[in-house]
């Protein structure tokens, strides 16, 4: 059994805007054994009522941290371990080979990841298959799908 204080996975929300989504992502991170990283600026206060409500009573079990900016994050987590999720990627999320300790990066709800981050990701940029009628998927759903795909690949859900 892995050390509960050593995250198996890192989930990064780049400048999240909606507290309810972030709270739901936090709950998923507890279930996955992942650490949640939030990159400022945030669209809410971390003590926001809806953030805590969405995380329910799981928030106390969540390993999480807020960093001031992109540079602060990449100084702490190696960029070569990042998987960047964007609708502009060619590669499907199921074509990645995830390893424990990887970083799953998601952009803000309204604009996704900045172009410079998407470009820097290269073949580590991933997308979810969607029909053309759908502009985007809910952030918390995307984190759950990607996180559980990583767990499935490790055989960690058994």
From TrEMBL:
S-adenosyl-L-methionine binds at residues 107, 136. GO terms for biological process: wobble position ribose methylation. The keyword Cytoplasm applies. It is an enzyme of class 2 (transferase). InterPro entries: Alpha/beta_knot_MTases, SpoU_MeTrfase, TrmL, tRNA_m1G_MTases_N. The keyword Glycoprotein does not apply. It catalyses: 5-carboxymethylaminomethyluridine(34) in tRNA(Leu) + S-adenosyl-L-methionine = 5-carboxymethylaminomethyl-2'-O-methyluridine(34) in tRNA(Leu) + S-adenosyl-L-homocysteine + H(+); cytidine(34) in tRNA + S-adenosyl-L-methionine = 2'-O-methylcytidine(34) in tRNA + S-adenosyl-L-homocysteine + H(+). Residues 9-148 form the tRNA/rRNA methyltransferase SpoU type domain. It is found in: Cytoplasm. Gene3D superfamilies: 3.40.1280.10. GO terms for molecular function: RNA binding; tRNA (5-carboxymethylaminomethyluridine(34)-2'-O)-methyltransferase activity; tRNA (cytidine(34)-2'-O)-methyltransferase activity. It comes from the Bacteria. HAMAP family: tRNA_methyltr_TrmL. Could methylate the ribose at the nucleotide 34 wobble position in tRNA. Belongs to the class IV-like SAM-binding methyltransferase superfamily. RNA methyltransferase TrmH family. TrmL subfamily. This is Putative tRNA (cytidine(34)-2'-O)-methyltransferase. It comes from Posidoniimonas corsicana. The gene is trmL.
């Amino acid at each position: 059994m892995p050390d509960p204080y050593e995250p198996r996975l890192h989930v990064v929300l780049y400048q999240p805007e909606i507290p309810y989504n972030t709270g739901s992502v936090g709950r998923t991170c507890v279930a996955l054994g992942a650490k949640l990283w939030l990159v400022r600026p945030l669209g809410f206060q971390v003590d926001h009522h809806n953030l805590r409500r969405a995380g329910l009573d799981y928030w106390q079990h969540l390993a999480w941290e807020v960093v001031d900016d992109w540079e602060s994050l990449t100084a702490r987590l190696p960029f070569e371990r990042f998987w960047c999720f964007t609708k502009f990627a060619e590669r499907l999320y199921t074509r990645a080979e995830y390893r424990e300790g990887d970083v799953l990066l998601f952009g803000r709800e309204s604009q996704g990841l900045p172009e410079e981050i998407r470009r820097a990701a290269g073949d580590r940029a991933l997308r979810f298959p969607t029909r053309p009628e759908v502009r985007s998927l809910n952030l918390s759903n995307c984190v759950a799908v990607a996180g559980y795909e990583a767990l499935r690949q490790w055989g960690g859900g058994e």
